[in-house]
Amino acid sequence: MNGMEQGKKQSGSFKRRISIVVIFAVLACIGFLLSVMKGSVEIPAAEIWQTLVSGAEGVHAQILMNIRLPRTIVAALVGIHLSLSGAILQAIMKNPLADPHIIGISSGAGLSGIFILLVFPGHEAFVTPAAFVGAMAAAVAIYLLAWKNGIRPIRIILAGVAVSAFLGAGISALMIFYSDRVHSALMWMVGGLSARSWPQVEMIFPYTIAGLALALAFSRQLNILLLGDEIARSLGLRVEVSRLLLTAIAALLAASAVAVVGLLGFVGLIVPHAARLMVGSDYRLLLPASALLGAAVVTLSDTFARTAFAPVELPVGILMAALGAPFFLFLLRREL
Questions:
Q1: pLDDT per residue over 101-141, tens digit each?
Q2: Into how many domains does the chain fold?
Q3: For position 168, which CATH number holds?
Q4: Of 300, 230, 283, 322, which is closest to residue 88 (Cα–Cα)?
């Protein structure tokens, strides 16, 4: 009888978590719809549907197809990338405060991306590969600096701050040496979606498919890593190899997002925490939940940032920093 009751309880808990993932999917759809509707010119949902289905023409159709729709797709994909990257890093570094922006991975991608943008303008196709190399190098450096008879969360934060400061100095130096070209990099520095269109969609979408597929394929290894290195080894997991591969996946996701929108921070910190509170730590559910919630958060935040202070458009990175910094301090006080 007790076994049956326990089975029913577990089944009910799983159904509840699945329903939360479905709610996140609905929230992502709402964020997507609001993003394409709202702006200096409001486009009704019925007209959006008519344009997408029948290819209607007109001013609203031009705004939708050339500005709103690609920008919203980029926002959703960036939210997916950064949320998945943060969720993976929090598992492999055993640190609930890990985030591509906070621990310096985004800075590594940023330095490489800024280098291509300023030194080799017109070669944007190389931004994502260069950003990946920079992100991976930063991740490895942070991991090595934080390692001392194991990994401790506070060491990762301190190593990340140091590496991020060093890479930030490199970014500042590049902007000084190439001050005549710095205007194109300013929006990239704070993280913004202005002027993002179909070329950026084409740039990031293949990395979304690859990163999402790889992350989901490694969900079992992420669950095992949560048990601790000794237990993971006893279960047959090659811990360091798995951690290196997962770091590469997280770096690829973060780098491709940074290459498109710049240094957008705190998404990878806030979203996985919120999703974990709702669906638990099972990465088979946590990864899709984080991806859907990340898409919703970035699309809704971008919509608010470009409409709340109209006609001035606030970069979404500023809004995310205003929301994320207090959340980070709250988590820091709770963890230490």
A1: 877 888 898 899 889 888 888 777 788 888 888 988 888 88
A2: 1
A3: 1.10.3470.10
A4: 283
